[in-house]
């Protein structure tokens, strides 16, 4: 019994050292690339779009996150893309930032988080309050980004969940699909399905899901002790027909169905053809 207890204690020490080591490397990686990105966002060219993907790809490797991606980003004759994804954890930013060339649309509170706000600003994040009276101005800001050729990454659930389900979509900003730039719309599903090489179940899903009143520091302190795999399915472009509510319903149904299949351990691939909204 004592030997088993000692072994478990030793494993705990190793996990803690791993978590702290990853945090140190993350800080160094950020301090190296952040000044470069702050210069790039003031210059013409695609460097300011490419560097964030490289940055988040590096962060994924640092925190022990492996990405299993199905599907591909649309190559749409210069038209911008609106990626619509489900949301269960701050780790989604790392995973999706590494594979999707776009600017995140995030809640306004993120702009007040010390340190993280710098990274978000460098990634050219658009902050929204989701207050009705501010919606028009926030939508205008997103339209300006689309007109400039930027892609957007939306989380229409409006908040994170426990990862066991996809919450109802709020279609407010999906009206952007009818923008004059004729943006492409792609559904993106992300589910964390493995922890330390083993399938994730309902019991340990809260270790990666970040929701409710969890604080990010203590959440990372546990999450950083483990290795993770995220399954990401990028669907082909939707043929947008109808209003934002119909589009939101179609996206919610598709992403919810794919997420459920992944949680059940079933193989899922991106759809072979576009689906109509």
UniProtKB/TrEMBL annotation:
Pathway: Lipid metabolism
Record bears the keyword Lipid metabolism: yes
Superkingdom field: Bacteria
Pfam families registered for this protein in UniProt: Acyltransferase (PF01553)
The entry's keywords: Acyltransferase, Lipid biosynthesis, Lipid metabolism, Membrane, Transferase, Transmembrane, Transmembrane helix
Phospholipid/glycerol acyltransferase domain segment(s): 81-193
Single GO MF descriptor: 1-acylglycerol-3-phosphate O-acyltransferase activity
Transmembrane stretches, start-end: 20-41
GO biological process terms on file: phosphatidic acid biosynthetic process
Xref: PANTHER family: 1-ACYL-SN-GLYCEROL-3-PHOSPHATE ACYLTRANSFERASE (PTHR10434), 1-ACYL-SN-GLYCEROL-3-PHOSPHATE ACYLTRANSFERASE-RELATED (PTHR10434:SF64)
Name of the protein in its database record: Lysophospholipid acyltransferase family protein
Organism whose genome encodes this protein: Acidiphilium acidophilum
Lineage: Bacteria, Pseudomonadati, Pseudomonadota, Alphaproteobacteria, Acetobacterales
């Amino acid at each position: 019994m004592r030997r088993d207890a000692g072994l478990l204690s030793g494993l705990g020490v190793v996990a803690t050292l791993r978590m702290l080591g990853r945090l140190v490397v993350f800080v160094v990686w950020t301090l190296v690339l952040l000044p470069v990105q702050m210069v790039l966002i003031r210059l013409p060219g695609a460097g300011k779009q490419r560097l964030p993907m490289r940055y988040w790809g590096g962060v994924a490797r640092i925190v022990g996150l492996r990405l299993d991606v199905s599907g591909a980003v649309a190559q749409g004759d210069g038209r911008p893309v609106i990626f619509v994804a489900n949301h269960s954890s701050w780790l989604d930013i790392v995973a999706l930032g590494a594979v999707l060339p776009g600017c995140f649309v995030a809640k306004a509170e993120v702009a007040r988080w010390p340190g993280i706000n710098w990274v978000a600003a460098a990634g050219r994040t658009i902050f929204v309050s989701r207050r009705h009276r501010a919606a028009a101005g926030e939508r205008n800001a997103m339209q300006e980004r689309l007109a400039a050729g930027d892609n957007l990454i939306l989380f229409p659930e409006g908040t994170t969940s426990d990862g066991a389900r996809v919450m109802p979509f709020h279609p407010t900003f999906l009206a952007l699909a009818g923008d004059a730039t004729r943006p492409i719309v792609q559904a993106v599903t992300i589910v964390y399905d493995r922890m330390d090489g083993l399938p994730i179940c309902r019991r340990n899903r809260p270790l990666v899901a970040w929701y409710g009143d969890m604080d990010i520091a203590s959440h990372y302190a546990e999450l950083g002790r483990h290795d993770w795999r995220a399954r990401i399915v990028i669907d082909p472009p939707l043929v947008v027909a109808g209003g934002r509510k119909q589009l939101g319903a179609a996206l919610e149904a598709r992403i919810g169905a794919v997420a459920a299949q992944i949680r059940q351990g079933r193989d899922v691939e991106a759809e072979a053809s576009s689906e109509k909204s």
